[in-house]
Amino acid sequence: MNVWVDRISALDPVKDHEEIYRISAGHEFPWDYTRALEFALFRTYCVPSISALLDATREFRDRPQRRYDDTALLMAEIAAHGYDSPRGKEALRVVNRMHGRYAISNDDMLYVLSTFVYDPVDWLDRYGWRPLTEAEKLAAFHYYREVGRRMGIRDIPSTFVEFRSFKSAYESSHFRFSETNRRVGEYTVGLFASWFPRFLRPLARLGVRSMLDPMMLNAFGFRPAPRWVTAVGGFSLKARARLLGWGRTVGVVRPRKVSRLAQEARNRTYPGYPTGYEPGDLGAPEPPADLDPQWLRSRS
């Protein structure tokens, strides 16, 4: 018996989407959601209009770890405490301030939002220790729809299927190679590899490339990883899922009582987070003084 699945089954995915999402991301699948959202953001760098701005700010070149930690912690704060809670509202203000400096199209913002919904769904379909319930999938959609509204994103589709269709169509028409995709992609692969001991970093780089689908590889201009690396990586993730599923079934692995959301005690940029920190302490610095004005939002 899974107390969290039982709890989810008693909730409404529209009305109770925050609680359901909090259970899925914080109690049932915290490791998987973290990995899936890392690759969701990575996926957005396949769009040249997105990568060009990121490349121009030089954040990924100069401070990739802080850029990663700011995004991860701000989104976790919103999920952990609720988008209308004091901490959630403060985190959203930081997110909106960061994005509000730059000339970002609504469609690019909408696409990034869509990856937060569907990339974790797709990851858990492949590598989850149990499948997501339909209520969990719908709750993720409704949760990010409300977050998107509070970020000022317009024209968010009204159904799970419509938003999925938007994401697929956007990728088909906007994923294409550019040098800024390649540079931001390389910075990101380097960041992921830096989390491993130095002697393992070449293998980690191959491992990251093995997780990218052909559309992403083409958009980044990356060579595919050797087939054996892809096979080993996929096998390892599926073996982990089976082992966890078995552990839950026999009671060796018990349902997590404490949520992992916004509880990154070993955070690389903010040691001991969240102790001693507020959401307002997070966020990227002001744009570089020499940034081309084309990337800045007009104040007129």
UniProtKB/TrEMBL annotation:
<feature type="domain" description="ER-bound oxygenase mpaB/mpaB'/Rubber oxygenase catalytic">
    <location>
        <begin position="55"/>
        <end position="231"/>
    </location>
</feature>
<feature type="region of interest" description="Disordered">
    <location>
        <begin position="269"/>
        <end position="300"/>
    </location>
</feature>
<dbReference type="InterPro" id="IPR018713">
    <property type="entry name" value="MPAB/Lcp_cat_dom"/>
</dbReference>
<dbReference type="InterPro" id="IPR046366">
    <property type="entry name" value="MPAB"/>
</dbReference>
<protein>
    <submittedName>
        <fullName>Peptidase</fullName>
    </submittedName>
</protein>
<dbReference type="GO" id="GO:0016491">
    <property type="term" value="F:oxidoreductase activity"/>
</dbReference>
<dbReference type="Pfam" id="PF09995">
    <property type="entry name" value="MPAB_Lcp_cat"/>
</dbReference>
